[in-house]
Amino acid sequence: MTDDTTPAPHGFLWGAATAAHQIEGGNVNTGHWELEYAPGSAIPEPSGDACDSYHRYPEDIALLADAGLTAYRFSVEWARIEPEEGVVSRAQLDHYRRMIDACRDRDVEPVVTLHHFTFPRWWEHSGGWYSDRSTDRFRRFTEICTRILDDVNWVITINEPNMMVNQTEARIDTENGVNFPGPSPHVARAIAGAHHASTEVLRGFGGVKSGWSVANQVFQAVPGWEAQRDEWQYWREDFFLEQAREDDFIGVQSYLRTIIGPTDDAQGFGPQPWPEGTERTLTGWEYYPEALGHALRHTREVTGGIPMMVTENGMATSDDRRRIDYTAGALTAMQDAMDDGCDVRGYLHWSLLDNYEWGSFRPTFGLVVVDRETFVRTPKPSLSWLGDLARRNVVPRR
User: Fold this and answer.
1) DSSP per-residue letters across 307-366
2) Distance separating alpha carbons of residues 172 and 44, to the nearest angstrom
3) Cβ-contact 100, 112 below 8 angstroms
4) Nearest alpha carbon to residue 213 among 254, 258, 260
5) Residue 54 neighbours by CB distance under 10 Å
6) From the CA atom positions of the chain, what is the Rg in Å?
7) SS3 of 380, please?
8) How far apart are CA 359 and CA 128, in angstroms?
9) How many beta carbons lie within 10 A of that of residue 280, not counting itself?
10) Mind listing the domains of the chain with CATH numbers?
11) For the purposes of burial, counting CB atoms within 10 Å of the CB of 80, is it exposed (0-12), middle (13-18) or buried (19 or more)?
12) b/e burial code for range 234-257 (CB count within 10 A of at least 16 → b)
């Protein structure tokens, strides 16, 4: 199979993404660590040392830069920076500032996420999003982080708020994709309040562009079930897209589609199982790279057309050739959406490293293999393939 290419816009960011808890290791002060090691935990595998990227981040950034990529999305860990409420670790802030400096030294644009799923234990134990102090707490955390963001251009406040609505209930459903048994509008509004407080802080801080990233699940309808599809997706996606209308940009995260139709349960409608024979990824999701184009168009429609960045897109597979095929298809869909008028500023692949996928190391999304015993990094062909596109600043058309 051969690819034609289309030039990407000048200044387009090409990169890869990670999250602190999934790669750093030793995040002992997070609520997630507490769940991983709780007696009788339902989490199959703890994060442990993860990829030891807390110590090895210079090597990770160098791998990305040497391949030709120009952006690295990573998150700062709230549980490290504020281990007890009101107690700020200057040493941990300095650690993340060194990560920003390591990116700058390699001419890599840092895309910093303030919150990527994990909370300090004290947050979990003091009400979480149900506390009437949640907005003020996240505002204060944002203010703390601004101490190290003076030359950072892109900040994501909260990763996938729609996946956090019922985080303890959220799961990867290998039959139907990512699903919630029932999202909480109360928590959704609380998260939105925290996001708006955070962007207000960042807007007054300087030239930083801020927004959040939303997991776009490409809700499609069985013919005749469009109204039910719209009802299903509002609190699972569209509410969060609406909240971004005044932001500087929005992160679009796309992996799959979800088809809504009739079910036998009390609600009477919901995600449909994929037909037998559908190609599945290691997370059990449908192989559907075209989802990214749908996600970008839908996000533009709901947000009113604010700038977008693809902040996550990838495939869990042990076959790197299939990863390249999937990514080429997704990039083609992205370019088609851009040709239709979508304002896309960059593409960040998930993930730079094979990492901890919230319960297991088995789903391998990475451009780089990490040996679980020695932590030796081995680039996959997909890293050089994507880096070549970045060096030439072209998008494949397949």
Assistant:
1) -EEEEEE----S-HHHHHHHHHHHHHHHHHHHHTT--EEEEEEE-SB----SS-S-S---
2) 13
3) yes
4) 254
5) 18
6) 20
7) coil
8) 21
9) 15
10) 4-397 (3.20.20.80)
11) buried
12) bbbbbbbbebbeebbbbbbbbbbb
Per-residue pLDDT tens digits of the chain, which is 398 residues long:
457 999 999 999 999 999 999 999 999 999 999 999 999 999 999 999 999 999 999 999 999 999 999 999 999 999 999 999 999 999 999 999 999 999 999 999 999 999 999 999 999 999 999 999 999 999 999 999 999 999 999 999 999 999 988 554 444 444 444 444 568 899 999 999 999 999 999 998 878 999 999 999 999 999 999 999 999 999 999 999 999 999 999 999 999 999 999 999 999 999 999 989 999 999 999 999 999 999 999 999 999 999 999 999 999 999 999 999 999 999 999 999 999 999 999 999 999 999 999 999 999 999 999 999 999 999 999 999 999 999 999 999 98
- Name the β-bridge partners of 30: 120
Q: Which residue has the tokens 């990094």?
A: 377
> Which residues fall within 8 angstroms of residue 314, CB to CB, at 6 or more apart?
255, 323, 326, 327, 349, 350, 351, 365
Count of other CB atoms within 10 angstroms of residue 378: 11
Contact by Cβ (8 Å): 133, 127? yes
